[in-house]
Amino acid sequence: MNILQINSSARSNGSESTRLADAIVARLGAAAPGASVTRRDLAAQPHPVIDEATLQALFTPAAQRNAEQAARVALDDALIAQVQAADAIVIGSPMYNFGITVQLKSWFDAIARANVTFRYTENGPVGLLTGKKVYVALARGGMHRDAARDAQVPHLKAFLSFVGLDDVQFIYAEGMGMGPEAVARAQAQADADINAVLV
Question: What does this protein do (predicted)?
Fold first, then answer.
C-alpha cells in the first residue's frame, strides 16, 4: 500500500489536523505492514500559487515551453505523480475562516489537470483518480458540522469528486477554540472515530 499524507495547516508544529492525520496514517500502516508513506507538509514545503506566468506555462504545449515554464509545470507534475501512485490519501485540513487553507487550495490547483486527473466528456467532467480511499482530518475552532456556514466540507467533497476521489471519510475535531474541556472532548471523539473507521 502507498499512503500519501497531505498536511495543509499553516502550522508546522501543534496542528490538530496534522495530529489526526498522523493517527490515521499510523492506523493504516499498522493494518498494512510494509506500507510506503509519503508525507508532504504544505507549510514546510509551500507550493506556489497560480499566477499569470503559471497559466502561460500550463497552456503552452510542452515542446514549446522555455526552461522556466518547464520547471514550473514540473512542480505540479511531481504532486500529480504522488497522487497517482497513492492507494490511500490522508489530508489534514484545518478550517480557516469557514473554508480550506490557501496551502490546500494551491495543492488542489496543482493536481487538477485536464486529461490527466480529469477529462471533459459530452456528459460532463469525469475524474481519473479512481480506486483510492481518502481520509480527511478536519480541525475547527468552533462547531460548524452540517451548518450552512461550513464552506470547507462542500468544497472538499466537490473537488475530490471532480478528480475521481469519491470514497472519502471525514474525521471531525470541533470546538478546538472553545477551551481546554472542549478540546479534550473533541480530541477524544476524533480519536474514537478514527478507531471506529479504521477497524
Answer: Quinone reductase that provides resistance to thiol-specific stress caused by electrophilic quinones.
The residue whose grid cell reads 470547507 is 152
Supply the pTM of this predicted model: 0.94
Q: Are 17 and 9 in contact (CB under 8 A)?
A: yes
Based on the structure, what is the number of domains in the chain?
Answer: 1
Q: Rounded to the nearest 5 degrees, what angle is found at the Cα of 103, between the Cα atoms of 2 and 142?
A: 100
DSSP-assigned states of every residue in 71-106: HHHHHHHHHHHHHHH-SEEEEEEE-BTTB--HHHHH
pLDDT in tens, 148-199: 889 999 999 999 999 999 999 999 999 998 999 999 999 999 999 999 988 7
Annotated binding site for FMN: 9, 15-17, 95-98
CATH number at residue 51: 3.40.50.360
Show the cell assigned to 91.
489530508
User: Side-chain half-sphere of 73: how many Cα atoms within 13 Å?
Assistant: 17
